[in-house]
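Consortium newsletter contribution from the modelling node. Members have asked for a concrete example of what our holo predictions look like. Here is one, prepared for the flavin-adenine dinucleotide complex that several groups have been discussing at recent meetings.
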Amino acid sequence: MAAAPEHRDVLIVGAGFSGLYLLHRLRQRDLQAHLVDRAPSVGGTWYWNRYPGCRCDVESMTYSYSFDEELEQEWSWSTRYADQPEILRYLNHVADRFDLRRDIQLETSVTAARWDEDASLWRVTTNHGELTARWFVMATGCLSIPNTPRFPGLDRFDGAWYHTAAWPEDGVDFTGQRVGVIGTGSTGIQTIPQVAAQAEQLTVFQRTPNFSIPAWNGPMDPAAEAARKAIYRETRATARRGPTGDIWPESTSTALAVSAEEREAEYERRWHEGSFSFLSSFHDITTDETANETAAEFVRNKIRATVTDPAVAELLCPYNHPLGTKRLCVDTDYYATYNRPNVTLVDIKDAPIEEITETGLITGGTEYAFDSLIFATGFDSMTGALLAVDIRGRNDQSLRDLWAEGPHSYLGLTVHGFPNLFTMTGPGSPSVLSNMMTSIEQHVEWVDECIGHLSEQGQTTIEATPDAQADWDQQVHDEAYATLYPRAASWYMGANIPGKPRVFLPYIGGVGKYTEICANVAADGYRGFVVA
Ligand code: FAD
Ligand code: N01
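And here is the predicted structure:
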C-alpha cells in the first residue's frame, strides 16, 4: 500500500517575495505551513533573472518588505535601485532572519492539484510525490514563465542562446563575441547597454519600440537614506493608500488645462526625478489620448536629442501605443547605447524573424551571424504559472478550461469552484500595475487573516460565489476600458503570446481602492464568499 501523502494545513507554492512573507505570517498562527519551489534557491524573480543589468526599477527603499521595522531599519541598499544580486541577498537574508528554511522544500515542482470534495482538502502532485493541504496558495508569480518564441531552427543553432529569465548562475562572458538580442521590453532595455559594453558587436532586433525613462541610479546617499528611514512608517502608509503602491505625488491637474510651457516644465521635472513618477505627471495621461500624446512626444524628443543618427532615433520612437499602456521601461543609458559604433538596431516590425540557422538568424531575407543569441522576449504573464499546473476544483472542473477565454476571479485572489485556493497577485488584482511589494504585502496579510479567522472559527472552506465573481470580472473590465491601456498589444492584454485570449489582466482601479474593497469584504464577514 502506498504511503499516505504528507499533510499540511497550508501549502504555498513559490519562494519569492509573496511566498516567503506568507510563510512567515502563517508561522505566527497555530498552523502548519509548508512552502515548495521548483528553484534550487529562494528568491523567485530575483533568483531566475540574473542577466547583465538586471535590477528593480521601483526604488529599493520602497521595493522592499515593510512588515518588520527592525529589518527595515537595519537593511541598507547600496544604490537607489538595487541590482539582482543584492535583492537576492536580501531575500536570502529574510529567509535566514525569520528562520523560514525549515519549512521550505526546494527543487520541487507542482504539476497538478485536485480538490478532494470528501476530505475538503487539496491533493497536490509534485515531482517528489503527493502532498495534501486544507489551504492551497499559488504564490507562483506573474512573470515567472518565460516566453521563448518557437522560431523554426532554434535547435540547430551552433552558438549559445539564453533566455534572460533562465540565465546561467555563473554568468556569461560576451567578450569578443557577436551577440544578437531579441526584444526591447524592460529586460532588453536593461541588458542591451551592459552587453554592448562587453561584446564586440551587438545587434538588437526590435519589434516594438518602447517608452523608457531614465533611472538616474547611483550610490545610496547616506543622508537621504537616514531621512527616509526616519519617516519610513509614513511613507509605507502613503504607498498603501495611493493608486500605484508607491510614494510619488499624483497630479490633480490635466495635461491640457495648463500652458505648453508649464506642461514641458512638469515633464522635465518628472524626467529628472526618474522612473514611474513620469506617468503621474498629469492625471489624464492614462485616460485621454491627446493628453497622453503630449507626454509621448516629450519622450520622443528626448530620444531624438540623445541618438545621433536621426534614422535610428526615429526607429526607436514609439508611435503604435499610448505612453504607459505597454509597461513603461526605466533605463540606464539605453538610448545613448545606439550611438556606440558596435551596436546596430534592426527593425523587425514588418519583417519578423523567419528562422534561426546554424550560424545566426534570418529576417527580411538577410542573415545575421552570431556567437550568442539573447532572448529578452518576456513572459506568459499573470495566468502562465497558474495554468502551467493542472488545477482541478469541484466536480473535476479544470482551471485551464474555465479560463480558456480569459481569467475569472473574485478580487484576483480566489475562483468560484476552487475552494480554499488563493492566487497571489493573480489576474484581477492590481499586481503588475503597482509597486508589487505593496500589493504583495496587502495580499499576504489578507490571505493570512482570512485563513487565520476561518481556522479560529473552526470553518474549513471558503469559496467565491458566482455572482461576486461575475461582478468583479465586470469591474476589472470596466476600470480597464475607462483608460487607454487596452489599446496596446501588450502583455497586460495577453497579446505577447500567440493564441492567448485578449483580456486585460490586472485590476487598474488602484492599490488604495483595491485594499479598501478587500478590507470591507473581510469586515462584512467575507461578503461574496460562501464560508462553511
Ligand atoms: P516570483 O518572484 O515570480 O516567485 C514565484 C516562484 O514560484 C518562483 O520562484 C517559481 O520558481 C515558483 N513556481 C512557479 N510555478 C511553480 C510550480 N508549478 N512549482 C513550483 N514552483 C513554482 N516588480 C516591481 O514592483 N518592481 C520592480 O522593480 C520589479 N522588477 C522586476 C524585474 C524583473 C526582471 C522581473 C522579471 C520582474 C520584476 N518585477 C518588479 C515583478 C516581480 O516579479 C515582483 O515584484 C515580485 O518579485 C514577484 O514575487 P512573487 O513572490 O509574487 O513571485
Ligand atoms: O518582456 P516584454 P520583458 N519576435 O514582454 C519582444 C518586468 N520587468 O522581460 O513588444 C520578436 O515586456 C517583444 O516585442 P513586442 C516588467 O513588468 C521589470 O522585457 O511584443 N520579438 C518585446 O520587445 C516588464 O514589463 C524590470 O512587439 C519578440 C520583448 O520581446 C515585464 O517584466 C526588468 C517576440 C518582450 O518584452 C516583462 O519584461 C525586466 C517575437 N516572436 C522585467 N516575442 C525592471 O526594470 C516577444 N518579442 C524592474
